[in-house]
Amino acid sequence: MRLILVCGLPGSGKSFFAKKLSAELHAVCYNSDILRKELFPLKRTYSEEEKKLVYTTLLSFVEKELKEKHTVVIDATFYQNTLRIPFYKLAEQMNCPLSVIYLYADEKVVQERTSVTREDSEADYNVYLRLKNLFEPIDRPFISLTSERDNIHELIQSALIQLHV
Fold first, then answer.
1. How far apart are CA 66 and CA 90, in angstroms?
2. Domain limits at 12?
């Protein structure tokens, strides 16, 4: 049982990485964008109320999975500390190891990724630029990985080594 937060800006490769990592770990994977579409199937406003419901729902799903002793990977921007703290507290309450993985990508790569329609994310380059200015530093030890065009295998191997699994 372990909780892994995969965070970073839009276009950083979080979703692709989180899917591959969760498959490697046989973990449950939750994606904030997919959940948002399920909660708000007709129209998404990305309001504070909407964001709060998405993250609160994620937290309840994670709690259920951790109670069942499952490893959980969460794929979300987590650009504010206030979004991360409830997950930190939950892991602590449940005596569950917690790892934070921050995915970074060069702006040229982000521009390429956000210029095409992506399966789960609706964020474009303008959203990336806005969130880049709002992203709060991660206030605890974390694993930092740089996503490039074709380095998913290396990213997964590096994460597994640093997660000590």
1. 9
2. 3-163
Angle at 51 between CA 144 and CA 116, to 5 degrees: 65
- pLDDT tens digits for 28-54? 999 999 999 999 999 999 999 999 999
Domain holding 102: CATH number?
3.40.50.300
| C-alpha dist (Å) from residue 148 to 14, 16, 35 | 12, 12, 26
**DSSP reduced 3-state for 31:** strand
d(CA 48, CA 25): 32
Residue 156, C-beta contacts closer than 8 angstroms, at least 6 positions apart: 17, 20, 21, 24
| Predicted TM-score of the model (pTM) | 0.96
Q: How many domains does the chain have?
A: 1
* 129-157: average pLDDT: 96
pLDDT at 117 over 90: no
Closest alpha carbon to 55 in 73, 77, 25: 77
